[in-house]
Structure formats: C-alpha cells, structure tokens
Amino acid sequence: MIPLRDNIRTRKVPIVNYALIGVNVLAFLFELGLGPNLEAFFHVFGLVPQRVIGIAIHAPSHIHWALIPFLTSIFLHAGWLHLIGNMLFLYIFGDNVEGKLGHIRYLVFYLGCGLAASLTHLLSVPSSPVPTVGASGAVAGVLGAYFLLFPRARVLTLVPIFFFFQIVEIPAFIFLGIWFLIQFFSGSVSLFSAQQTAGVAWWAHIGGFAAGAGYTILRYRLLKRR
After folding, report:
1. Which pick of 11, 117, 149, 150 has the fewest CB atoms within 10 Å?
2. pLDDT tens digit string along 193-205?
3. Taking residues 62-67, what's their average pLDDT?
4. What CATH number is attached to the domain comprising 25?
5. Domain count of the chain?
6. pTM for this prediction
C-alpha cells in the first residue's frame, strides 16, 4: 500500500518536517558523489551492530565512535527508492505530528525515535556486520504518534491488486495498523531466518513505532493530569 495524502491539514507550516526531508535529500546527493567510496562511508557512518558491540567490549574508552552512527545513519539511504519511500511517508504524516507537538519538540521526538529504532535493531542482530542506514526507524516513530493522534483520519492509498492499482481511502488506524502488523510479522520471521543479518531492518521499524506511540501515550497522560 502506497499513501498518497491524508485529509488532515495542519494550521502551522511544518518547517522542521520540511527541513528533515531537505537534510535527507542533501545527504543522499552527497552519497551519490562518493562513487566507489560509498561502501566505506556506510561502514563508518552507518550503524554496524558488530562494530558497536566490539568497541563496547574491547575499547570502551572509544565508545563515542560507536555512538555517532546511531544519529548519522538515520539521514543516509541506500538508493532512490529507499529515500523516496521514507520521505513520502514523512511528508504525509509528519506535518500533522509536528503541528501537535510543536517545532522543537517534534525535532527532539524525531531524533529520539531514530535512536530508539537503532538501539532496537542493534539488540535484534548484535552480530551483524552489515551497515544499516535509513530514516525508516525515525519515520516509524512518526507513524506511531500519528496512529494515536489521528486514528480517524483518512489516507488516500494506492493499493496494488494483481496487475491493477486501485485508489481508495482507508482510515488511518487501519492503514497504520496493517503497516505495523507487516513489520512485526516480518521481524518475527527474520529472527529465525539464516539471513537475518541482511535486508530490511524490521525491528528498527518496530522499535521506532513503539517509541513514537509510547511517547505519545505518556505525553497526553501527563497533560491530562495537569
């Protein structure tokens, strides 16, 4: 399912959301100029679980070098489709979440979800030597918040049916609920797969979504108490 737009319009210009999209695009354009050095770049600034664990055990005084990729990896992408897919979801769902949280809080929220997603991925495949890159974990946090904040919103969705495409409006809680179930099922299967160290970082998506939803629940419980 490919989201095209939602029916919720924010009253504030989502400047942080636009800035995040811009930074991701600029980072990708920078990657394109690296040519044969791109793989080495990913090994330094992408999240490599095996490397992080190795530094933490054998060289804890240099742990800061292992922590930097937790942040940098969420602004890097492995290809055009990877970038476009993440930025499409961020563009459609991020503006409304920013409108609810405010600009600065949204920025901190986005980065926090990205860090939570990276940590979840690390714990799920600690021995993986494969660099992980992509904003999908942070974007998943945005989806988790949207799921709770705008459950009755309608999402105009492109649905592939065999060789045809149908455009339908789907309630946000159904669209995002199906999205999360796909991630959870795929992540659970990957734990028992011989190739779990490569491919899609399903547990980063799950961790990001859970972080976004968890923050939203805690925030609004505190607001109600006040």
Report:
1. 11
2. 655 445 678 899 9
3. 80
4. 1.20.1540.10
5. 1
6. 0.90
